[in-house]
Specification:
Strand order of the largest sheet: 2-1-3-4
Low-confidence stretches: 1-6, 115-119
Distance between the termini: 28 Å
Largest sheet: 4 strands, mixed
Shape: globular
Structural class: alpha+beta
Length: 119
């Protein structure tokens, strides 16, 4: 799944599992609350994710308050960003995140906004 501009396709939990196991890129799963406005929750996400679209696979998921997925992925706050790389979770941020914390999370997977020639 190639992303050319900011997009965060929503997927099923089965799709997420497939991506975690098979993506060559790090996978950033963004868990949003099903009963809150997805548009409002995505406002902050867009600002944080801008610039990373070609470096990570962004996937959005909506979570029910009492759903098994909330327990399975240990989701307590919204949005929750969970970063997977090489099939494993390597970090997460919960709730409103500062850009510097978000950048540090992605750096755990070797992802930077800058290419080596720009740094």
């Amino acid at each position: 799944m190639e992303q050319t501009a900011f997009e965060c396709p929503f997927c099923t939990f089965d799709d997420l599992e497939t991506a975690i196991k098979g993506s060559e890129l790090p996978v950033l799963a963004i868990f949003l609350h099903k009963k809150l406005s997805v548009q409002e929750q995505m406002l902050g996400v867009r600002g944080l994710c801008r610039g990373y679209c070609d470096k990570v696979l962004l996937l959005g998921l909506t979570v029910d308050t009492y759903g098994i997925e909330r327990v399975r992925y240990n989701i307590c706050n919204y949005p929750t960003y969970v970063l997977f790389h090489e099939g494993h979770e390597i970090g997460r941020l919960a709730g409103a995140a500062e850009k510097t914390a978000f950048d540090a999370l992605l750096q755990r997977a070797g992802v930077s906004l800058y290419s080596p020639s720009e740094a």
